[in-house]
Amino acid sequence: MHSRLYILLSFAILPACTFDATGLGGAATGPSGEASASTGASTSTTDAPGTTLEPASSEVTGSGTGGMSTGPGDSEGTTAAPQPCGDGVIDLDEACDDGEDNGATRPCTPECNTNVCGDGYPLAPDEACDDGNDDDADACRNDCSLSPTCGNGKIDGGETCDDGNAIDTDGCIACKKATCGDGYIEANVESCDDGKESPLCNADCSVRQCGDSKLNVAAGEVCDLGAKNGVYNSGCNADCSGPGNVCGDGIVSTPEERCDTALPLANATCTNACQMIACTPSFIDCDDKAGCEVNSSDDDDHCGDCSTKCGAIEHCDNGDCSL
């Protein structure tokens, strides 16, 4: 009888007890005993009154096209991140992109911006400079040209030229057009340039030499008639030191001269541009030497002329032989 009573009490207590399957590793089922399935919407599973089991993922979404899962912040059609400047592709935030041709002096800057005056990048040859500021009084003006100064490639006030270089053998030197006498030898134009006439350089910047038909007083030249130098009575001797051989220079220049007006003659004078000797009356020249050494009026050997000789008993009387 005690055994029967014990069994009855056990069946009376059993309906009042409940069991939580979650602690046993089994799948929880609802009152109907069916397991919940993922259908693209969030679900909760209830096992017993007051007990709720959450799914493993707090939010599961699906498009039904491959089971891709996306987080709450993702959206369809998201734009890819911009690529770096210099890849040769112009992105939305770039004005240009020439790839390896980007550069400080190129049409496209290293930051993929169009190179313009004022950006701090000079673009040769259009810009002489670019300091990127608005100060028009500094070395680089706001139009990207150099301030007025010799060498900026622009002809400013007081300059006759500006070729932008420091070469002193071309046509523009220190922003002045090259000229003879500026002290600089202009290539292919001048042979020398001492700033003025010198013993080695003529006033026209040609190398000095006697016979160049250019009088160079600094070199001690008195004359220079070129090819006529040294020619008798040309007016200049061979070394440009004087008028040269000329009648009256005190030198009998043969064969052009028989005498010279600067030299005294005995009983005669030098005439006809130093080519004739005029004897004093009654005097004659019988030895073909300069001067009239014979008095033909009383010389028995040359009585009247060089070829008349008086006889042994004759004597010359006023140019005639007589007894």
What topology emerges from the helices and strands here?
Layout: H1 2-13, E1 45-46, E2 52-53, E3 172-173, E4 176-177, E5 268-271, E6 276-279, E7 283-284, E8 294-295, E9 315-317, E10 320-322
Structure at a glance:
The chain is low in regular secondary structure and 323 residues long.
Describe this structure in words.
The protein has a two-stranded antiparallel ribbon with strand order 1-2. A two-stranded antiparallel sheet has the order 3-4. It is largely without helices or strands. It is 4% helix and 8% strand. The protein has a domain at 254-323. The chain contains 1 helix and 10 strands.
Descriptors:
single chain; 323 residues; two-stranded antiparallel ribbon; 8% strand
Task: Detail the poorly predicted runs.
Answer: 1-75
Give the topology string: H per helix, E per strand: HEEEEEEEEEE
Strand order of the largest sheet: 1-2
- Counted by DSSP, the helix tally is 1
Main β-sheet: number of strands, strand sense, barrel status? 2 strands, antiparallel
